[in-house]
Amino acid sequence: MFRRRRIHETTRLPDDQLQMAWQLCSLLLDYPSETLVSQLGLIRRAAGELPAYLAEPVCRLVAHLEATELSQAQRAYVETFDHTRRGCLYLTYFTCGDTRKRGVALVQLKQAYRRAGVELTSAELPDHLGVVLEFGATADVEIAWQILTGYRASLEVLRISLQEKNSPWADAVLVASRTLPELVGDEAQAIAR
Predict the structure, then answer these.
(1) Which of 8, 36, 151, 173 has its CA 20 to 30 A from that of 180?
(2) Which of 89, 75, 76 is closest to 128 using CA atoms?
(3) Is the pLDDT of residue 43 over 80?
(4) 189 pLDDT exceeds 70?
(5) What is the pLDDT of residue 97?
(6) What does the alpha-carbon distance between residue 92 and residue 104 come to, in Å, rounded to a whole number?
């Protein structure tokens, strides 16, 4: 039911394009701020260096944010990500819920970051999609790749939920998803569950 056809290559992007795509998604998935608004032109230009199947969704979200009053974008962001379980940006939440198992998963992610020489300084938890993408863009592509593919079902549930709500932020999650291998077999079944 949730298997989707790819309209682009199934091979992995070169690391520089992967890092660029992840960095742009990380920025766009952050709470809308004056700083983000001032960076939208740069984000659009940077997206031009990506393949069209990644650049187009980035540019759609940028255009939406440019056309939306900041306070309205902030309200929509909170309604999208802070008030619904299926709109949660915390990847382990989809697989573990609010259980002790989630605490173990968060510790494992922190340890993975430390192995890469990164100590989290943000207030966000290590499973926040924006944090994982930023980590991959700036610190360690391979470890971030492993984290994202390990939580692929969570990423896809979030993508599907945002697309069903016609959320503009679905485009950022779509881009992150499109940087990963095509879903097949057990992964597609995990999303359906």
Answers:
(1) 36
(2) 89
(3) yes
(4) no
(5) 76
(6) 10
